[in-house]
Design brief:
Length: 198
């Protein structure tokens, strides 16, 4: 067992079994000092499976990004994640947890977001997905000039590889907003339940 490449453990797209999770947990414990990103997207994780991994994930001292999108997680797991985030000894460095494209997770509870925000106080003024609803989009557009189309941004000199202004804020808009024709996220519809404080 060595150091993960780029400090990332990426198992995306690999269906995991409970036996695999034992190996993953052991690897995370062994490599804890070197892991800052864990990608478990589309691995068929269930609530029970994530509960099995939660102690190993919460103990990673440098974990900033946890991607759990595209799995079989339900809103019931949010209670356990929220409780883990309330404990400052667990997930001490996390700033991004992606729970989009799961069974029935369409929004994140306020205590979850508050606990995440406490881990990144310098970014505390950024809107979160619950604070940034459809009714507030027009207010934000008027204040910050975010109503410009992508063509206008490109014409102003923004290259195709640069993130749009909302991505710079660390926001991931819901698919519902994207379908309305206003400022769709480059990350696609999988970001319905993503929280960030980067």
């Amino acid at each position: 067992m060595g150091k993960p490449p780029d400090n990332t453990v990426d198992l995306s797209g690999i269906p995991l079994t409970p036996k695999d999770l034992e190996r993953v947990a052991a690897y995370l414990q062994h490599s804890a000092a070197h892991v800052d990103t864990v990608e478990l997207c589309f691995t068929e994780l269930t609530d029970e499976m994530l509960l099995q991994l939660l102690p190993a994930l919460g103990a990673l001292p440098h974990l900033t990004t946890l991607s759990l999108n595209g799995n079989r997680l339900t809103k019931a797991i949010l209670r356990d994640l929220t409780e883990a985030l309330k404990d400052p000894r667990k997930f001490p460095s996390v700033t991004w947890i992606d729970l989009g494209n799961n069974v029935d997770i369409f929004s994140l509870p306020q205590p979850f977001l508050v606990s995440l925000k406490k881990r990144c106080p310098k970014q505390g003024n950024l809107p979160t997905i619950l604070e940034f609803g459809e009714g507030q989009l027009s207010d934000l557009e008027g204040q910050d000039g975010l109503a410009e189309s992508q063509e206008d941004l490109r014409a102003a000199g923004q290259g195709a590889d640069e993130p749009d202004r909302l991505d710079c804020l660390g926001l991931q808009l819901t698919d519902r907003m994207g379908r309305g024709g206003t400022l769709p996220s480059k990350r696609g519809s999988g970001g319905d339940a993503a929280a960030t404080q980067t």
